[in-house]
Amino acid sequence: MATKRKSKGAYMISAVAEMYQIHPQTLRLYEREGLLRPSRSEGNTRLYTDEDLERLEFILNLARDLGVNIAGIAVILQMRERMEEMNRQMQGFVDYVRTEMLSRMQQESSSGLIPMRRPVVVPPSATTKKRRPSE
Asked: What phi, psi does 48 have (nearest 5°)?
């Protein structure tokens, strides 16, 4: 669901409801259920950021297009957040391994060790295959 919006803004509940053609009570329900977490102004007005709107678009896609209920949306969002966290952890691990490998390679090259190539085994080509006795 692509909706044109201004960049780097904060939107009030009435503007968001109008942009996405939903009732403001629906947005309040999503907040009450923990699906959305808009920030608040000093006057306690809900302010939706661009990230909130992206999340709302995902929620509306699940609800409108796929028919997922609120409980299902909550489960999907939790799973999505867990996957993103696991992805961040994996990226951190990959970065750690890369740093360690580079560090060890630099230590080996500065210690005067020369890496040796391993022998490569080449399978016999079609011309050197043995012929069967019947041929």
From this structure: -100, 125
pTM, two decimals, is: 0.67
Indicate the pLDDT class of residue 106, thresholds 50, 70 and 90.
confident
Helix (H, G, I), strand (E, B) or coil at 51: helix
Q: Measuring CA to CA, how many Å separate 48 from each of 22, 34, 63, 70? A: 14, 14, 19, 20
Q: Cβ distance 82 to 72 under 8 Å?
A: no
Assess contact for 72 and 62: CB atoms under 8 A. Answer: yes
Do residues 5 and 53 make contact, with C-beta atoms less than 8 angstroms apart? Answer: yes
Cα–Cα distances in angstroms (integers) from residue 72 to residues 44, 57, 68, 129, 130, in the given order: 29, 16, 6, 61, 64
